[in-house]
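cAMP-dependent protein kinase type II regulatory subunit, pasting as requested.
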Amino acid sequence: MMLSILCCGKISKEPLVNRYASRRKSVFAETYDPEADDDDDGARAIFPKTDEQRARLCDSVKNILLFRSLDKEQMNEVLDAMFEKKVKAKDYIIKQGDDGDNFYVIESGIYKAYVGEDQKHIHTYDNSGSFGELALLYNMPRAATIQAETDGQLWAMDRQTFRRILLKSAFRKRKMYEALLDAVPMLKTLQSYERMNLADALIPKTFAKGERIIKQGDAADGMYFIEEGKVSIRIQQDAGEVEISNLEKGQYFGELALVTHRPRAASAYAVDNVKVAFLQTDCFERLLGKVLDVMLRGMKHYRYVDQSVWKMILEACREENSQVR
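C-alpha coordinates follow.
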Protein backbone atom coordinates (compact mmCIF):
# COMPACT_ATOMS: atom_id res chain seq x y z
CA MET A 1 0.00 0.00 0.00
CA MET A 2 1.27 3.48 -0.84
CA LEU A 3 0.60 6.59 1.20
CA SER A 4 0.94 10.09 -0.25
CA ILE A 5 2.57 12.78 1.87
CA LEU A 6 2.08 16.42 0.90
CA CYS A 7 5.10 18.56 1.72
CA CYS A 8 5.89 22.03 0.38
CA GLY A 9 3.65 21.45 -2.63
CA LYS A 10 5.37 18.17 -3.57
CA ILE A 11 3.97 14.68 -3.24
CA SER A 12 6.26 12.06 -1.77
CA LYS A 13 5.21 8.43 -1.88
CA GLU A 14 6.42 6.18 0.84
CA PRO A 15 5.61 2.45 1.29
CA LEU A 16 4.42 1.61 4.78
CA VAL A 17 6.78 -0.55 6.77
CA ASN A 18 5.68 -4.20 6.68
CA ARG A 19 6.24 -4.82 10.34
CA TYR A 20 3.14 -2.77 11.09
CA ALA A 21 0.88 -5.01 9.02
CA SER A 22 0.50 -7.52 11.85
CA ARG A 23 -0.19 -4.95 14.57
CA ARG A 24 -3.22 -5.30 16.76
CA LYS A 25 -6.55 -4.15 15.38
CA SER A 26 -6.19 -0.58 16.60
CA VAL A 27 -7.61 2.89 16.17
CA PHE A 28 -7.71 2.33 12.42
CA ALA A 29 -10.68 0.00 12.91
CA GLU A 30 -12.62 2.93 14.35
CA THR A 31 -15.15 4.60 12.13
CA TYR A 32 -16.88 7.92 12.46
CA ASP A 33 -20.07 8.58 10.51
CA PRO A 34 -20.86 12.30 10.69
CA GLU A 35 -24.30 11.73 9.17
CA ALA A 36 -25.25 9.41 12.02
CA ASP A 37 -23.86 11.69 14.73
CA ASP A 38 -26.71 13.85 16.02
CA ASP A 39 -25.18 14.47 19.42
CA ASP A 40 -24.01 18.06 19.52
CA ASP A 41 -23.79 18.09 23.29
CA GLY A 42 -21.71 14.98 23.86
CA ALA A 43 -18.68 14.88 26.07
CA ARG A 44 -16.37 17.66 24.97
CA ALA A 45 -12.70 17.86 25.78
CA ILE A 46 -12.06 21.12 27.62
CA PHE A 47 -8.63 22.13 28.91
CA PRO A 48 -8.82 25.36 30.96
CA LYS A 49 -6.51 28.14 29.76
CA THR A 50 -5.48 31.53 31.00
CA ASP A 51 -6.25 34.54 28.82
CA GLU A 52 -2.55 34.68 27.90
CA GLN A 53 -2.51 31.00 26.87
CA ARG A 54 -5.68 31.37 24.81
CA ALA A 55 -4.25 34.43 23.05
CA ARG A 56 -1.08 32.51 22.18
CA LEU A 57 -3.12 29.57 20.92
CA CYS A 58 -5.33 31.84 18.79
CA ASP A 59 -2.21 33.30 17.21
CA SER A 60 -0.82 29.82 16.49
CA VAL A 61 -3.96 28.43 14.80
CA LYS A 62 -5.10 31.49 12.83
CA ASN A 63 -3.37 30.38 9.62
CA ILE A 64 -4.11 26.64 9.85
CA LEU A 65 -5.99 25.75 6.65
CA LEU A 66 -7.83 22.84 8.29
CA PHE A 67 -9.64 25.31 10.56
CA ARG A 68 -10.38 27.92 7.92
CA SER A 69 -13.98 26.85 7.30
CA LEU A 70 -14.97 26.42 10.96
CA ASP A 71 -17.55 28.81 12.35
CA LYS A 72 -16.98 30.75 15.57
CA GLU A 73 -18.59 28.13 17.81
CA GLN A 74 -16.57 25.30 16.26
CA MET A 75 -13.37 27.34 16.52
CA ASN A 76 -14.01 27.90 20.22
CA GLU A 77 -14.46 24.15 20.62
CA VAL A 78 -11.08 23.64 18.94
CA LEU A 79 -9.45 26.15 21.30
CA ASP A 80 -11.07 24.50 24.32
CA ALA A 81 -9.90 21.03 23.26
CA MET A 82 -6.23 21.80 22.67
CA PHE A 83 -3.63 21.26 25.37
CA GLU A 84 -0.03 22.40 25.74
CA LYS A 85 2.89 20.06 25.13
CA LYS A 86 6.42 21.24 25.89
CA VAL A 87 9.21 19.43 24.05
CA LYS A 88 12.97 19.23 24.31
CA ALA A 89 15.50 19.13 21.50
CA LYS A 90 15.77 15.64 19.95
CA ASP A 91 12.36 14.55 21.32
CA TYR A 92 10.32 12.44 18.88
CA ILE A 93 6.81 13.88 18.56
CA ILE A 94 5.47 11.19 16.24
CA LYS A 95 7.06 8.15 14.60
CA GLN A 96 6.30 6.76 11.17
CA GLY A 97 4.06 3.69 11.34
CA ASP A 98 2.67 4.40 14.82
CA ASP A 99 -1.01 4.88 15.56
CA GLY A 100 -2.20 8.46 15.30
CA ASP A 101 -3.03 9.88 18.71
CA ASN A 102 -2.90 13.69 18.42
CA PHE A 103 -2.90 16.55 15.94
CA TYR A 104 -0.24 19.20 16.62
CA VAL A 105 0.00 22.95 16.04
CA ILE A 106 3.41 24.57 16.47
CA GLU A 107 3.75 27.60 18.72
CA SER A 108 7.53 27.61 18.88
CA GLY A 109 10.54 25.50 17.99
CA ILE A 110 12.08 23.87 14.93
CA TYR A 111 10.95 20.39 13.88
CA LYS A 112 12.11 18.08 11.10
CA ALA A 113 10.07 15.49 9.20
CA TYR A 114 11.64 12.21 8.06
CA VAL A 115 10.31 9.28 6.02
CA GLY A 116 11.46 5.79 5.15
CA GLU A 117 13.72 3.23 6.75
CA ASP A 118 16.67 5.51 5.98
CA GLN A 119 14.83 8.44 7.64
CA LYS A 120 15.17 10.81 4.69
CA HIS A 121 14.66 14.45 5.68
CA ILE A 122 11.74 15.92 3.70
CA HIS A 123 10.69 19.10 5.50
CA THR A 124 11.53 21.54 8.29
CA TYR A 125 8.92 23.39 10.36
CA ASP A 126 10.31 26.67 11.66
CA ASN A 127 8.22 28.05 14.54
CA SER A 128 4.91 27.67 12.70
CA GLY A 129 2.69 25.13 10.98
CA SER A 130 0.91 21.93 11.97
CA PHE A 131 1.32 18.19 11.48
CA GLY A 132 -0.22 14.85 12.33
CA GLU A 133 -3.56 15.30 10.57
CA LEU A 134 -3.18 12.63 7.86
CA ALA A 135 -3.26 9.66 10.22
CA LEU A 136 -6.29 11.07 12.03
CA LEU A 137 -8.28 12.05 8.94
CA TYR A 138 -7.70 8.87 6.95
CA ASN A 139 -7.30 6.22 9.68
CA MET A 140 -3.79 5.37 8.55
CA PRO A 141 -0.53 4.87 10.49
CA ARG A 142 1.73 7.87 10.83
CA ALA A 143 3.19 8.73 7.42
CA ALA A 144 6.37 10.37 8.74
CA THR A 145 8.53 10.86 11.79
CA ILE A 146 8.67 14.31 13.39
CA GLN A 147 11.60 15.17 15.66
CA ALA A 148 12.27 18.40 17.56
CA GLU A 149 15.51 20.11 16.59
CA THR A 150 15.19 22.65 19.40
CA ASP A 151 13.22 23.07 22.58
CA GLY A 152 9.72 24.18 21.73
CA GLN A 153 6.05 24.27 22.53
CA LEU A 154 3.16 22.58 20.75
CA TRP A 155 -0.61 22.62 21.05
CA ALA A 156 -2.22 19.19 20.69
CA MET A 157 -5.73 17.84 20.10
CA ASP A 158 -6.71 14.20 20.64
CA ARG A 159 -7.79 11.96 17.78
CA GLN A 160 -11.48 11.62 18.67
CA THR A 161 -12.05 15.35 19.14
CA PHE A 162 -10.15 16.17 15.96
CA ARG A 163 -12.18 13.75 13.86
CA ARG A 164 -15.51 14.76 15.38
CA ILE A 165 -15.00 18.49 14.88
CA LEU A 166 -13.26 18.42 11.49
CA LEU A 167 -15.20 15.61 9.81
CA LYS A 168 -18.58 16.65 11.15
CA SER A 169 -17.90 20.24 10.18
CA ALA A 170 -16.89 19.21 6.65
CA PHE A 171 -19.98 17.02 6.30
CA ARG A 172 -22.38 19.70 7.55
CA LYS A 173 -20.72 22.34 5.40
CA ARG A 174 -21.04 20.27 2.25
CA LYS A 175 -24.70 19.42 2.93
CA MET A 176 -25.58 23.03 3.74
CA TYR A 177 -23.79 24.53 0.75
CA GLU A 178 -25.01 21.88 -1.68
CA ALA A 179 -28.57 23.02 -0.93
CA LEU A 180 -27.55 26.68 -1.34
CA LEU A 181 -25.73 26.07 -4.62
CA ASP A 182 -28.60 24.00 -5.99
CA ALA A 183 -30.72 27.14 -5.70
CA VAL A 184 -28.31 29.26 -7.80
CA PRO A 185 -29.55 29.07 -11.43
CA MET A 186 -26.15 29.71 -13.04
CA LEU A 187 -24.69 26.63 -11.34
CA LYS A 188 -27.22 24.22 -12.84
CA THR A 189 -24.74 23.42 -15.61
CA LEU A 190 -22.22 22.06 -13.11
CA GLN A 191 -22.04 18.35 -12.46
CA SER A 192 -22.86 17.13 -8.96
CA TYR A 193 -19.20 16.46 -8.10
CA GLU A 194 -18.28 19.95 -9.34
CA ARG A 195 -20.84 21.50 -7.00
CA MET A 196 -19.44 19.40 -4.15
CA ASN A 197 -15.95 20.72 -4.89
CA LEU A 198 -17.36 24.22 -4.91
CA ALA A 199 -19.15 23.61 -1.60
CA ASP A 200 -15.89 22.43 -0.03
CA ALA A 201 -14.14 25.64 -1.13
CA LEU A 202 -16.69 28.06 0.33
CA ILE A 203 -15.88 29.98 3.50
CA PRO A 204 -18.68 31.12 5.86
CA LYS A 205 -18.77 34.81 6.76
CA THR A 206 -21.25 36.92 8.70
CA PHE A 207 -21.96 40.66 8.61
CA ALA A 208 -24.03 42.76 11.01
CA LYS A 209 -26.84 45.04 9.90
CA GLY A 210 -25.41 48.10 8.15
CA GLU A 211 -21.91 46.64 7.80
CA ARG A 212 -20.11 47.14 4.50
CA ILE A 213 -19.19 43.85 2.81
CA ILE A 214 -17.26 45.17 -0.19
CA LYS A 215 -16.19 48.70 -1.10
CA GLN A 216 -16.35 50.32 -4.52
CA GLY A 217 -12.85 50.80 -5.92
CA ASP A 218 -11.19 48.11 -3.83
CA ALA A 219 -9.33 45.18 -5.37
CA ALA A 220 -11.38 41.99 -5.54
CA ASP A 221 -10.50 39.02 -3.37
CA GLY A 222 -13.52 36.82 -4.11
CA MET A 223 -17.28 36.61 -4.65
CA TYR A 224 -20.21 35.99 -2.32
CA PHE A 225 -23.28 33.73 -2.26
CA ILE A 226 -26.05 34.89 0.09
CA GLU A 227 -27.21 32.28 2.62
CA GLU A 228 -29.35 34.47 4.86
CA GLY A 229 -30.44 38.11 4.89
CA LYS A 230 -30.52 40.88 2.30
CA VAL A 231 -27.68 42.81 0.67
CA SER A 232 -27.87 46.33 -0.78
CA ILE A 233 -25.70 47.10 -3.82
CA ARG A 234 -24.80 50.79 -4.08
CA ILE A 235 -22.67 52.99 -6.32
CA GLN A 236 -21.01 56.30 -5.53
CA GLN A 237 -22.37 59.32 -7.41
CA ASP A 238 -21.87 63.06 -7.03
CA ALA A 239 -24.75 63.30 -4.56
CA GLY A 240 -23.58 60.29 -2.57
CA GLU A 241 -24.22 56.56 -2.63
CA VAL A 242 -27.26 55.35 -4.56
CA GLU A 243 -28.82 51.89 -4.20
CA ILE A 244 -29.14 50.15 -7.55
CA SER A 245 -30.02 46.62 -6.46
CA ASN A 246 -31.24 44.58 -3.50
CA LEU A 247 -30.23 40.93 -3.29
CA GLU A 248 -31.60 38.00 -1.25
CA LYS A 249 -30.85 34.38 -0.38
CA GLY A 250 -29.64 32.33 -3.35
CA GLN A 251 -28.27 35.35 -5.21
CA TYR A 252 -24.62 36.30 -5.53
CA PHE A 253 -22.43 39.37 -5.94
CA GLY A 254 -18.79 40.38 -6.30
CA GLU A 255 -18.15 38.33 -9.43
CA LEU A 256 -17.89 41.29 -11.82
CA ALA A 257 -14.46 42.38 -10.57
CA LEU A 258 -13.19 38.79 -10.79
CA VAL A 259 -14.32 38.36 -14.39
CA THR A 260 -13.11 41.77 -15.60
CA HIS A 261 -9.97 41.92 -13.41
CA ARG A 262 -10.91 45.45 -12.39
CA PRO A 263 -11.56 47.13 -9.01
CA ARG A 264 -14.96 46.71 -7.39
CA ALA A 265 -17.60 48.55 -9.44
CA ALA A 266 -19.99 48.95 -6.50
CA SER A 267 -20.24 48.63 -2.75
CA ALA A 268 -22.33 46.03 -0.90
CA TYR A 269 -23.96 46.51 2.51
CA ALA A 270 -25.79 44.16 4.86
CA VAL A 271 -29.43 45.32 5.05
CA ASP A 272 -29.94 43.11 8.10
CA ASN A 273 -27.78 40.43 9.69
CA VAL A 274 -26.30 38.62 6.71
CA LYS A 275 -24.64 35.24 6.32
CA VAL A 276 -22.71 34.58 3.11
CA ALA A 277 -20.55 31.87 1.57
CA PHE A 278 -17.31 33.40 0.29
CA LEU A 279 -15.37 32.02 -2.67
CA GLN A 280 -11.76 33.20 -2.99
CA THR A 281 -10.37 34.42 -6.30
CA ASP A 282 -8.14 31.42 -6.98
CA CYS A 283 -11.01 29.01 -6.29
CA PHE A 284 -13.31 31.08 -8.50
CA GLU A 285 -10.96 30.75 -11.45
CA ARG A 286 -10.43 27.03 -10.87
CA LEU A 287 -14.01 25.96 -10.15
CA LEU A 288 -16.31 28.32 -12.05
CA GLY A 289 -14.73 28.42 -15.49
CA LYS A 290 -17.62 26.40 -16.93
CA VAL A 291 -20.23 28.97 -15.88
CA LEU A 292 -18.33 32.08 -16.95
CA ASP A 293 -20.56 32.52 -20.01
CA VAL A 294 -23.66 32.40 -17.80
CA MET A 295 -22.16 35.07 -15.57
CA LEU A 296 -21.30 37.26 -18.54
CA ARG A 297 -24.86 37.08 -19.87
CA GLY A 298 -26.17 38.01 -16.42
CA MET A 299 -23.89 41.01 -16.27
CA LYS A 300 -25.66 42.57 -19.25
CA HIS A 301 -28.37 43.59 -16.77
CA TYR A 302 -25.95 45.44 -14.48
CA ARG A 303 -26.59 49.17 -14.66
CA TYR A 304 -23.38 50.35 -13.03
CA VAL A 305 -20.63 49.13 -15.34
CA ASP A 306 -18.73 51.54 -17.58
CA GLN A 307 -18.60 51.39 -21.37
CA SER A 308 -15.31 49.49 -21.61
CA VAL A 309 -16.67 46.74 -19.39
CA TRP A 310 -19.93 46.66 -21.37
CA LYS A 311 -17.88 46.15 -24.53
CA MET A 312 -15.97 43.25 -23.01
CA ILE A 313 -19.18 41.61 -21.80
CA LEU A 314 -20.91 41.98 -25.16
CA GLU A 315 -17.92 40.65 -27.08
CA ALA A 316 -17.67 37.65 -24.77
CA CYS A 317 -21.36 36.91 -25.19
CA ARG A 318 -21.11 37.18 -29.00
CA GLU A 319 -18.16 34.79 -28.96
CA GLU A 320 -20.12 32.34 -26.82
CA ASN A 321 -23.16 32.57 -29.13
CA SER A 322 -21.04 31.97 -32.25
CA GLN A 323 -19.55 28.86 -30.64
CA VAL A 324 -23.02 27.53 -29.84
CA ARG A 325 -24.13 28.01 -33.47
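Note for the archive: DSSP finds nine helices and 18 strands in the chain.
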